[in-house]
Every structure is written in structure tokens, then in C-alpha cells.
Amino acid sequence: MAPRPFWTGYLKLSLVTCPVAMVPAHTESEKIRFHTLNRKTGDRVETRYVDAKTGKAVQDEDLIKGYERGEDEYVPLEDEEIEAVALETTRTIDIESFVPHDSVDWIWYDRPHYLTPDNEIGVEAFSVIRDAMAATRTVGLSRLVLYRRERPIMLRPRGRGVIVWTLRYGDEVRDSAAYFKQIKSETVEPKLMSLITTLIEERLTSWSESLVADPVQQNLKKIIAAKEKGVRPAAKAQPRAPASPSNVVSIMDALKRSVENEKKRSKKN
Fold it and tell me: I want to staple 195 with a disulfide (CB 3.0 to 4.6 A). Which of 148, 158, 188, 255 is the partner?
């Protein structure tokens, strides 16, 4: 069963408008979550805000946001003042411009969402915008208020629908040149390249969701199931710290051994 949309509004391109609905493309509903308990009573522990100086509890109606301008100095801001600077993009995705689909580097991508027509009437307009982007190999850029903040977004056609990616702001992405320019330029020997290519080909596989399964969550479920039955899980031995790589073995020798090991592993499987 498809989840209910967490956002509904309109998709707009010039004079073409259609009602749309959106849901996050990822979910953490299956992720195991914990509450903090009092070990002695087994009761849940509540989190409360307290005044840093007086130590007294602060009521919800007395909480306010503050911008730190110095040590223990803050500029208080009301919610209404913060919301007043937001643009009116809460209910309309107005596509402002288009760029080639491969020109937006993945490092700018933030959160993915599925965008669909909200009723039968809007399917035609939605389909025209979607198919036009696919035909021109472009993505649309716009802005939208999501998660209580206005965000730049990118619309990318996918199958019968559209993926809406929230994008990171310009000041949130560090310039890679500041870090990568320190790496010395070096030409790799053809023999080394051939061996590493062979190693990659030995490990080449088809993409599957199982490749990104979360073993920690799976193990937690086993522990919880065991404790529910009154069985105390066996203590797991602590993994040994990996040994520091030796500089004595050459890269060539290491690659040759790696390729041999991969071939033996392939035969066993």
C-alpha cells in the first residue's frame, strides 16, 4: 500500500499547471528505534529543557530560538519573524529554469521524493512536462518550502513519474579542489592498471538492494527476538583491529596475490 502524500500542491511551467502530490522516496519506518529507560524501574525517561544557569525546567511556551553573537549573548527570534523571511513557495513548484540532466553533480543532491499527479485531470499536463524533460535530457530547477525551510529543488523524470531532489545550498558544499589539489599527479603503470582492472572485473556484479542491506539492524532484531523469549544472547567476540599494511610488499605483488585470491574465491562459489 502506497503511503499517503506528505505534500500536495501544484506543478507549474509558465501557463501549464497541474495538481501534484509528493512523498519521500526513502523511509526509516523499518529502522529499530530505542527509548531511554530508567534501569532501576524500567520506566521511560523524559527529556526536558532546563535553564542553563538556574537549572530550572522551562515550559514549552517559554522556548524561543536565539542566534549566538558572542559568548552567552544571543539575539532572540520569534517563529513569526523567522517565517516572515520565507518566500511564498509552500504550495507551488514553479519551474524557473532547465539545465542538462548530467550537469548537476551528485554531490549537490540531498533528499529524493516521488512526484505524481494528484488526480486524473492533471495527468496530461504532468505527462507533457515529464516527457519534454526526458526528450530534451534536461532537469527542472525550482524552489519549495519543505521541512520548514525553503530549499532549491531539481525535478528529474523517472519512468511514469518525476523525482524531486532537494539540493544543497551553495555554501553547504565544500570545494573539492581545496582537498584534492594536494594529491600528486602520477601516471599508473600499464601492468598495474591491467591487474587492478582484472580485480574489478572479478568483483563486478549486478546492482541489488541486498548489496546495501543493514547487518546491524538484522542483528538487533535477532537480539530483541531472543530477549523477548527470555534467552540471553551470547556475547560476541570483539573484532581485532586490522593490522597496519606493510610497505615491504610492492603494489605489483599485492595485486597479483589479490587476483589469485579472487579467482580461487570464484571457483568456490
Answer: 255
